[in-house]
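quick q for whoever's on today - can somebody do inverse folding on this one?? i tried earlier but teh output was garbage lol. tokens:
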């Protein structure tokens, strides 16, 4: 089971959409477009509040840091 993290490598603002995309194995650009459409459909203020809450609640992607350090340790 994959955990939900904010992406440190694939981020534009805070890594929320990048983390969701990585968790679902979907291109984060698709998640970003869907987020913008949802924001326009529901109003900007609820989107901003929800995004800030996600930014505060989602932990930073520690999985990626462990993978990148393991990859760099395997290099000659």
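ok took a stab at it. sequence:
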């Amino acid at each position: 089971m994959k955990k939900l993290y904010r992406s440190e490598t694939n981020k534009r603002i805070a890594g929320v959409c990048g983390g969701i995309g990585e968790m679902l194995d979907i291109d984060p650009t698709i998640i970003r477009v869907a987020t913008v459409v949802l924001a326009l459909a529901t109003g900007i203020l609820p989107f901003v509040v929800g995004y800030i809450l996600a930014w505060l609640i989602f932990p930073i992607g520690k999985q990626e840091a462990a993978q990148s350090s393991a990859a760099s340790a395997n290099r000659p």
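fwiw The helical segments are 16-24, 28-42, 44-57, 62-73. also Confidence is low (pLDDT under 50) at residues 68-72. so keep that in mind when u check it
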